[in-house]
């Protein structure tokens, strides 16, 4: 009977320590009760926090032809759930077709940084780059001209044009003067002819009898008057034409002066700024197109593991999604810890990660605690995402596996300790234990405690290593009518166990 009771007690207590079970008559307990006890031992008391999560790669890169690698997922984010970035590209690069030439990797293959993963035909990308380079050259030439002024040949041509315009103006002025003089002479001669004809007619009419030449004189006068009128009209037109030539020559000279001044004057700041903006835009296009040509060959951005290959040789790469994905960096586990545990967690603490798939435990280190909380499920339990970086996990540990994270939040070594079930009392009223004496009697002892956990409690005063403490009782069930049974009570029963929390 006693052996059966002893076996049952050991199985049910299960507190991770070897308890000394002493079966003695109870003094002051009810008939049929025996004590469970344990010796005060020297060892480690450690408090832990536990949460569940899943394994993931710390960073996953997505690679596409023509652009830089994207970060598809990363634990290095404020949300703790990963993030993404877009690869550098241009509008032309985004519309290019990429016929796949070679694929050099398979899913699950380990690669090193710089390893060629795949190649594609870059013909379209090269054409786009050539066009962008020509546009840039033109923009740079325009800017250089605005900043430094015209070249020597252009300047000499403008000087020559100005000199020719000046000469034309001088000639027009001279022609106007000579024309005016000639026209004045012609007009004077025509007027003199009219005067002479008039005088001759007057003289002939004064003769008595009148000379028979009067008719001839009248005809000559008429002809002279008509000639005067014609010369007067011609002189007016000639003078007007000469004046217009001077005006035109003057305008041409002014235009040549303005053209020359505009060439030698510095360009306005607004013009230079606009030209610089055009050059910058053209340079950006060249850079993007050059990047597209470079990324016609996909290379591993870092040491890692290929987790997806979505292309085939001789087939165009998909326009959406990634051609290849690679996980890099150490494996991590992100677990949701309750708000009651989070204050005891610090970056840099050690942790143990139990991974259910391969059934292994891997050491790790807390590398991130997200300060923003998240409600879990319909119960609105507040949790915080904590990331643990695994140390040298075996190859059997894969992304997506379920894991349990255990973090030691406090620990003391080589201290006196007792099973926590031996204590009664509270932090405000003090703690006591029942010391089991050699004769089977018990004595209540006041104790001072240090670190306390659900399993062990550190004793800082009131006990010595030779003491034995009561951790519970085993009560016979003979009085219940059940033959061979026993009732087990862990903790101190009437003492009520610990209340009010543990002192730290």
Structural features, described:
This protein is α+β, with helices and mostly antiparallel strands. The protein folds into three domains: 2-50 and 329-495, Efflux pump adaptor protein, beta barrel domain (Elongation Factor Tu (Ef-tu), domain 3), CATH 2.40.30.170; 59-125 and 292-328, OB fold (Dihydrolipoamide Acetyltransferase, E2P) (Beta Barrel), CATH 2.40.50; 152-265. It is built from seven helices and 19 strands. The chain has a six-stranded antiparallel β-barrel. It has a three-stranded antiparallel sheet with strand order 1-18-19, with helices on one face. The longest helix is centred in the middle third of the chain and has 55 residues, at 152-206. The chain is rod-shaped, with a radius of gyration of 55 Å. It starts with a helix and ends in a 14-residue tail after the last strand. Residues 1-32, 78-89, 476-488, 493-497 and 499-504 have low confidence and may be disordered.
Which features does this protein show?
504 residues, alpha+beta, Elongation Factor Tu (Ef-tu), domain 3, OB fold (Dihydrolipoamide Acetyltransferase, E2P), 3 domains, 6-stranded antiparallel beta barrel, 3-stranded antiparallel β-sheet
